[in-house]
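HUMAN: Can I see a protein plus its fold?

ASSISTANT:
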Amino acid sequence: MKAIDVVLALIFGRIIGFLLGDFLREWEIHINLYLNLIIWIAFPLISLFCLWLAHLIGRKFLFIYQGAKFFLVGAVATVVDLKLFEFIWLLVLAQIQASSIIAKGFSFVISTALKYWGNKYWAFQKHGKENIHKEMAQFFLITLIGLAVDILSFRYFVNALGPQFDIPAAIWIKLSVIFAAIIAAIWNFIGYKFFVFKK
């Protein structure tokens, strides 16, 4: 593993831990010193350990290592997606009673820009600049389809399925953002690996 892999795994693990802490506070679970230490220390170390395992397995099956990096980039982009969605929806659009779909679409586009950088340069390690316009067009196409998958999945979870297991509606919306991102991520990984960033 390269030093950049170690550093990014630790940073990304911390960001994922931040999301967990946010969920625990939403569920009104008191975060004491020990739980805070677990979130602050364990998540980065777990992230690093999992990436190291993927690196070992990736010596034989490269897609495993790429998939682990893709997952970490996607997890961080999901945190950005969720927090930006909350900011736009709760602080801006809800005040004028606009659709939450607008906020979701905007947060998805911004988080996708982050995913492009992370996947191109870190997960799939494609540093060349040849055919960059073709690559960007392909990325845009895969991302547009991913956007449709993300929004339709979000709409399904929020409107058609609705809150499950007595989960409050506000938390269900956050979980729906994550569920939608996971479904779109499966599509995106396949598209990015075999279509956009293929070598």
